[in-house]
Amino acid sequence: MRIVANLIAFQLGWFACVLGGAHGLPWLGVAFAAVIVGSHLWLAARPLVEAQLLFAVAGIGSLWDGLLVGMGLLEYPSGMLVAWLPPVWMMALWLLFATTLNVALRWLRGRWSLAAMLGAVGGPLAFYTGAQLGGVTFADPPLALAVIGLGWLLLTPLFVWIAMRLDGQTVAERAPVTAARSAGARHHV
């Protein structure tokens, strides 16, 4: 049930961000994403660890998208705060995507080729759909989508790897107490 809820929340957030950005209401999607991200962290077994994952992915993803904007491959209609970063609603989308890594996309762990293929197809597909909704325009659509695909081919396995190390959805395993440590503890009591 948590996986289905995670996927639905991500999709609703995606539409809120893209449609808000497309219609000059970039903060609408950001507010919607904040509720979803806040709920995700509230439900996390280790919220601080999960927050590290979300912000690491959002930071890397935002720098990547900023590079695409800087190269002139992408142009966004609203929400740009600085020229070298994507709009605020796109940064919120990166946070939303990161919420799926330890829940709905957990099955990609150790499946690096599959993660790369999913990224190479899913990334450009999401951008193409976003363009159809008015959230982004491409200077040269085939080139932009190819570069986006290459980036997602590399980024998706990286994000899955980071998620394995920053898994705030799983309770941390405690180190086993050795017999010597436990015996020493009894002598000090």
Automatic annotation (TrEMBL):
Keywords on record: Membrane, Transmembrane, Transmembrane helix
One matching Pfam family: DUF2878
Residue stretches spanning the membrane: 25-44, 53-74, 86-105, 112-131, 143-164
UniProt xrefs under InterPro entries: DUF2878 (IPR021306)
KW Transmembrane helix (keyword) present: yes
KW Transmembrane (keyword) present: yes
Name listed for the protein in its UniProt record: DUF2878 domain-containing protein
Species this chain originates from: Thioflavicoccus mobilis 8321
Organism phylogeny: Bacteria, Pseudomonadati, Pseudomonadota, Gammaproteobacteria, Chromatiales
